[in-house]
Design goal:
Elements (H helix, E strand, L loop, with lengths): L2 H12 L21 H9 L12 H10 L4 H16 L35 H14 L10 H14 L13 H19 L5 H14 L18 H16 L6 H14 L15 E3 L6 E3 L3 H14 L6 H11 L5 H7 L7 H14 L1 H17 L29 H17 L1 H4 L13 H9 L6 H9 L3 H11 L5 H14 L5 H8 L4 H17 L4 E9 L4 E6 L9 E6 L2 E12 L4 E9 L6 E4 L2 H10 L1
Antiparallel strand pairs: 1-2, 3-4, 3-8, 4-7, 5-6, 5-8, 6-7
Length: 619
Amino acid sequence: MCYRAAVLGGLIAAAGLGAVSRQSPPASQPSTSASATATATAESGDPEDRPLANRQGASHERALERFGGNRRTERAVADGLAWLAAHQRADGVWERERFDLCCPPDDRCGGVAVDRNNHELNVGLSALATLAFLGAGYTHEQGPYADTITRAFNYILAQQTSDGTFSPTSAFQIYNDAVATLAIAEASIMTRDPVFDRPLRRAVAHLARAQQDSGGWDYTAHATNRNDTSITGWVLMALESAQAAGAPPPASAVWRMIGHFERATERDGRVWYADEGIGVQRDRATRLRVQRYGPAMVAVGLYAHATIGWRPDDAIAQRQAERLLADPPSYERMTRLDPSGLHSEYYWYYGTLALFHRGGDEWRTWNRALRDCIVEYQERPVRPNGQRRHAYGSWPPFGLKWGKWGKMGGRIYSTAINVLTLEVYYRYVPTYLSPHGLIGPRELRAYVESAPEAQWKDVLPRVARFHPDTCEPVLLWMLDSSDAAARLGAAIELGMLGSPQAKRELTRQSGSAVGAVRLRIEQALGRLDEQSAQRTYGSVTRVNDAAGMFLFELHGRAAYYGQTVHVIRDGAAAGSARVDRRFSSHDVAAATVLEGAPRAGDMVVGESAAGERRTEESK
């Protein structure tokens, strides 16, 4: 089965055209990647029910090849996981400063943490190591690392208190809580084990309570008025996975978090680290705040851009991608040439996620540098007789003077974060192949509805920033607003998206518009005229007779919401349908049957926008 078929399967599920079985395999069935059931799920490709399915089974291999991994990256992951498993304590902990007690006395690995030598980071680091196993498709239910993961979760879950936190102190509380929540959410998605349900809900509720008033998170759950972009990036990752696992965060927390990334991002693509305290200095002459920027924060910002669901062609996102590509992964920069320590494994991790979600040449360029950098410098020491030394498969705490985080995380951190980075090829489905991000059409409409109708025109810029597949149905709904300014604003945005349904409202209000508003109307009408002569056509790929819907793949101009399409079989009319959802990243649309009984393989033809307008006007 080709990878595109798996993607189309995901769109089928997203459109409500299919269901995925959750039947568990026999517990005795071992697997080096995961269960056969997960393989079937991956091939059905339901991104909302099993969004991590590329990690497991045959889909794992297809994604590895499609997105730029190879045998070397897989060997590096396998050796890294073997090293992590060998350095876990019996109680499930990965300990930063004493992991070498797991080594033979005559073959200590070295690279123990030498900063913050206490237990306050144990749960976060243990969760990070656990994520590395989950990222390769392993779970606590079966496989060679089932016992390792079981011990890890027994430890992590035992640390959670009644208020939802996992952290013994407030010093690094939200880092610990976010990474632990992420691990629990991913395990829940992969296994549907109910043991994770209550801890996950408590963890999400705790993170929502710990949010600062301005939308970000700080090290502590207490109110500090400090918003830390690095910490907020981990919380975003945790909350997105929690939502996919069936434990969504409050909508208010999500929108406040989006507000943080909007505030933290400069027009040139830079993203500040924090707005108060650590990361902020005062200019001696002006006494104005001087915020700290760095490549990792740009990467976090671009990752957030994709995860939230904003348009990939946004000018700021393009500038951020350019910044990352101008500073690709480099061992030399990290170990010798960057005295700031900001060119780090942490930067590589987020830069990899951010550009993976963008895809295309940007991803291919970054990935070439990444593979050469990480894989080559994984430690593989052997004895003269060829026997592997105990450090084999691990990464030392990288960086000039141990870099920004090496001293604090040690070899456990370096190995876990690099393994996670090399799992990117199958760890997630890239957002350009999935229907929407953290915010979908339903969440976006609810956001608009939360404002008085007279203020809808003011939220339009925020609405229009989302991916067309998310914002178009909301903009169409806004065309029915009783507020003329809201209708016009929605029509302008729809016109720029190429939706002919904006034509009537644009024409109606063009006569009274002046200045910049009239110019925008003319631009939108011009955009529609460019597409007016094009004709939609494609072929039916999947039919759900019970739901009265079908999915069709487009071969020409994209379909649009509300469009009437005709079904043709053997040259004769076989029915008609209305387009209810389109997936512009895939040239795929879903339609509700109006007449007839479409079959897979039937041709789908839609009138040109001009033709449909003539038909409408003749009625």
